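Quarterly update from the structural biology core.
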Amino acid sequence: MLEIDITGGTALQKSLINSAAKHYVNFLLGDPGHLLLTIRLKPDLFAKYGCKADCIILDEDDDFREYEIRVDSKMHMPALLRCLAHEIVHVSQYEKGHLKDGTSAFQNIWKGKAWDIREHDYYDLPWEREAYGMEVGMFERFVSARRFTKKRWYKDYDYA
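Predicted structure, tokenized:
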């Protein structure tokens, strides 16, 4: 059972984020079992922390997993939905066991191999390459499924 808890943002943002999150999880995982996504729409996330979005595991055991996704709520809606897609790819990577936390804050395990993130450019990390490679296609599928056809859904910028 997928549960989604969204905090912050506008009513429109919450509605679209909820719909998109369900769409993305269904696309990547089908029935995810007992999964809770807490999505926090935070203004100025990028200005304060240097990232548009992030994802962390809050709790996991054999029958329940919980993740927190934070997304900068000041982005235009298409960018916000693309960032959400990217972070849900990370959720999927964790769920499938491809990505695991390592023994330190600077280490992740990708498909059984330890990666020290200090030794690699962010965009060269395999889990990031996969997420960036999938985010636009997932966004496009969602927009198409919702029959959003106006040009504003395809503007190529994140902020005004």
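Helices lie at 11-29, 45-49, 77-95, 126-145.
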